[in-house]
Amino acid sequence: MTNQDPTYEPNGTQPYTPETDAGYGEVASTNNEDFTNSTLDQTTDAQQKPEVKKSFAGSTWVALIVGAILLVLLLVFIMQNQENVQLQLFAWEMTFPIGAGMLIAAIAGALIMALVGGVRIIQLRRQVTHTNR
User: Fold this and answer.
1) Domain membership of residue 40 as a residue range
2) How many domains does the chain have?
């Protein structure tokens, strides 16, 4: 046996193999796994941070921040688009800044969306009240 041989033992004793001492390998690996698992559990528990549950107030706060950012962007858009344009809708003709026209169109779209959503909510409430009777 030489130093390059993985089973070489410099003190002359027989190297460990599972065939020579089956009981030793089982006990050592079991104890090592138990120690490793308990150590990992302790470090994992110490490193884990408590989870914070989502709340309605937190979601509202995020929505307000997003709304404020969109409002600032909308105001910048309106201020940069001050050219007067002529808008036509059926028989009506209007002349005002294009930024204001875009704002009016966005508000009209939001109102239509809110109206459709409101009608759907009313339908669902009626359906719930009729099925509970």
Assistant:
1) 1-51
2) 2
